[in-house]
Amino acid sequence: MISVLLQLALIILALAMLACLYRLILGPTRSDRIAALDTIGINLLAVIAVLSILQKTEDYIEIVLVIGILTFIGTTALARYIEREAVIDQGGDELDR
Predict the structure, then answer these.
(1) Does residue 61 contact residue 52 with C-beta atoms inside 8 Å?
(2) Spatial contact of 56 and 15, defined as CB atoms under 8 Å apart
(3) Which long-range contacts (CB under 8 A, 24 or more apart) does 22-30 make?
(4) Count of H helices and E strands in the chain?
(5) Distances (CA, A) of 17 to 2, 9, 25, 38, 91
């Protein structure tokens, strides 16, 4: 019974990722695209966790952690890019010059 529910969860997560991919490609604003990309990353984490439960192994937990960290860093970098039009600042403040 549990395996059927987990397989159903995988199907639902796959459909959610397809919907996010649609928003990522056709999103009207950059913010929509970034939110869709972040949601795809979170859904990918859930897919790997469900696969880990289905296969009854803990080998994928490290992968979940790495993808979670990369998703956070990517979302933060893209949000900073939207805000400042640059990810890395090239100079100091006005007072430093």
Answers:
(1) yes
(2) no
(3) 30/82
(4) 3, 0
(5) 22, 12, 12, 11, 39
Q: What is the pLDDT of residue 94?
A: 59
Q: Which residue has the tokens 């929509």?
A: 32
Q: Whole-structure pTM over 0.85, yes or no?
A: no
pLDDT value at position 65? 93
How far is residue 56's CA from residue 2's CA, in Å, rounded to a whole number? 12
* Buried b or exposed e, range 23-48, using 16+ CB within 10 angstroms: bbeebeeeeebbbbbbbbbbbbbbbb
Q: Measure the CA–CA gap between 39 and 49, rounded to whole angstroms.
A: 15
